[in-house]
């Protein structure tokens, strides 16, 4: 319809438009551009040009011959028509430029690593994702269009392919982590009290996305730095870490750093695909730093029992940890 609009403006400017065409142009301009000089948004521009299209189509459908008529020239509208004709002719103003594109609904594809299993996947941009046990990454259907966005539940190590034009964004609960090309570990299990972002290489930005106004938590985390977010207190801190130790789970190293007994029990459940239950009478305020490599679950539980003064029973996948001398 751009050619029809252009042709109509040209006939109006030359004085060869018939009466109903003149009325159409002047009514349309008065309606959409005579509003005290108010500028229209791009969406409004698309709407009014759709409207003019419809009117021209209706006029063409009437199949009336075009007969030039003598008339008193309206120089105000002639000047405006000339301006639009110039814009259309130079390609600076086209409806399609401003028309709002209808995008398909955004969907997410889940890549999951069940309890007791670790998984390595490569995304379509070349980014490698290592998923720890009991973790999922959800990849947006719009991944790679303008950004590369995923959601994470659990723990994963990302080795992001560098692309300065398309930031890689990970949503993990309240936190949003943005990178261009780097490697880092995010631990964000829903049942844990903390979310941790630890950087191996490059720089990482971490923000809060729980409100309309994002809060910047860390502008540029670098090698061996971590941001730890406390869900209960809605607070965060940046600290130094050994990221090689943190991400050693990829090579079957089970490391605990200043971990509570509850954290250890949850990790053992995911790591070995066990149903671990702590007796409610256990109230251990101490925190533990431990390391295991390719150990069987009973070996790990024996070490924990010796350190904490607890006992355990194991029946298939079901483990119950009790205070000492209670079964």
From TrEMBL:
The lineage of its organism: Bacteria, Pseudomonadati, Bacteroidota, Sphingobacteriia, Sphingobacteriales. InterPro entries: FecR, FecR_C, Ferrdict_sens_TM. Residues 111-205 form the FecR protein domain. PANTHER family: PERIPLASMIC SIGNAL SENSOR AND SIGMA FACTOR ACTIVATOR FECR-RELATED, PROTEIN FECR. It comes from Pedobacter hartonius. This is FecR family protein. Coiled coil: none annotated. GO terms for molecular function: sigma factor antagonist activity. Residues 254-321 form the Protein FecR C-terminal domain.
